[in-house]
Amino acid sequence: MHILLTDDHPVFLDGLKKSVYNKDFEISTAISAKLAIDIINTQNVDCVISDYSFRDETTNGAMICKFAKAKNCNCKTMVITNWNSYDIIDEIVNATVDGLLLKDSNAKEIRTALDYILQGEKYYSLEISKIIARMQEPKNEAILSPTELEIAKLLQKGSSQKEIAGILCRSLRSIEAHLSNMRLKLNAKNTSVLLQKLIEKKLI
Questions:
Q1: Which domains does the chain have, with CATH numbers?
Q2: pTM of this structure
Q3: In what order do the strands lie in the sheet with 99-102?
Q4: 3-state DSSP call for residue 79?
Q5: Distances (CA, A) of 123 to 5, 72, 116
Q6: Of the residues 63, 64, 71, 98, which has the fewest C-beta atoms closer than 10 A?
Q7: 45: how many CB neighbours lie within 10 A of its CB?
Q8: How many angstroms separate the CA atoms of 27 and 30, rounded?
Q9: Contact 106, 76 (CB under 8 A)
Q10: Are 100 and 148 in contact (CB under 8 A)?
Q11: Residue 170 to residues 87, 164, 175, Cα–Cα distance (Å)
Q12: Farthest CA pair distance, the chain
């Protein structure tokens, strides 16, 4: 069983390797998406566990997993990520990954998830499962939360996401997550379309 672990943070990668260690596993590591693709191209990989985002690279973990399955349809794949926005979760799930966890998962859950996917089952962490369930709920586009309404008004005034984060005393990631949720509610593919639909529906 050849398992490929991919993450651009060496400390996390080392911890991940310890979490999944088994004397019957051959474990390879890749510190970049490019190296991961090279290993998948040149070696027989049975399972890929990857981070989602990589610094200074356009290839992400969902793409790596999709590529691995294209090379070997029996390859099992899992993404472990810090990102929990709707669009990113949707992209990862649509890449037909077998497992999806957040990076705050402990070693026991990582190992449990690995056991599940190697047995041919899906494994999503509890928080990821809740996010997916919310994504599948009927969309009520007429309702914006108070925070989303503030963000929409600031966007209309021309404020950048970074400026909005400062004005509302929120993290940039929090603003990105809110925007992702707003785009989902109004079925808008980008921020420009989102603003146009908000104006058309007189929500701002």
A1: 2-135 (3.40.50.2300), 146-200 (1.10.10.10)
A2: 0.69
A3: 26-30, 2-6, 47-50, 76-81, 99-102, 123-124
A4: strand
A5: 17, 20, 6
A6: 71
A7: 22
A8: 10
A9: no
A10: no
A11: 20, 8, 7
A12: 61
In this structure, the number of other CB atoms found within 10 A of the CB of residue 139 comes to 12
In tens digits, the chain (204 residues) has pLDDT values of: 999 999 999 999 999 999 999 999 999 999 999 999 999 999 999 999 999 999 878 899 999 999 999 999 999 999 999 887 878 888 898 888 999 999 999 999 999 999 999 999 999 999 899 888 877 765 554 577 888 889 999 999 999 999 999 999 888 888 988 898 888 888 888 888 888 888 887 777
Contact 188, 197 (CB under 8 A): yes
Q: Work out the number of other CB atoms within 10 angstroms of the CB of residue 41.
A: 11
Letter for the amino acid at 32?
S
